[in-house]
């Protein structure tokens, strides 16, 4: 079944690339705005041979990885503390619901004002966006803990952190991993967006330069790279999730199927 899915995915990608080659060749769109697939891949080859491209890729991955790590750590700690400390969840619920919907891009003026085009501007946006993905999942996960298991742990004299380790954490971990997977994708989106808008070093800034200089094939080539990065991030996050939850019924059932 998995081999068949891979074959279908490859066939769909091949059809998409063929469509991208045919549409401008047939004059349905102007090549100046949407070059054929062959020209885009030619530009991609030139990018891969340019050392500046690899430096930009490294800058993007650095901002993504640091922002994601900070967001995951802060989200897990904050979620556990808010859930465990009595009445803290009720006290912070309105604040969380107020801050969570604010788009990270709305913080771009603040980031530029504070840090200019430095890496810290990128981190501010990435951490803010990815943090909520993790925090909300941790809150949901701990809320899903069986009250009977919680009371049993209390009756056996387990302290607060022992209950977190042996009762809350195993229940919340599937939610945490879902939050990490979502945060990984959001962090990549915000990293490239910040680079594109703010001008911080990275693939986003390189896309902006290609666009302003009318280097259209190079621009699309860089966009393809960001798409490939997104695919790698998603596959990597799912792999980590399956590994961390190898004991969980959902993953065992998925493997069995």
TrEMBL record:
Main localisation: membrane
Keyword set includes Transmembrane: yes
InterPro entries: MetI-like, MetI-like_sf
Superkingdom, natural source: Bacteria
Domain ABC transmembrane type-1, chain residue ranges per copy: 57-241
Family, per entry: Belongs to the binding-protein-dependent transport system permease family.
Protein name (record): ABC transporter permease
Native source species: Streptomyces vulcanius
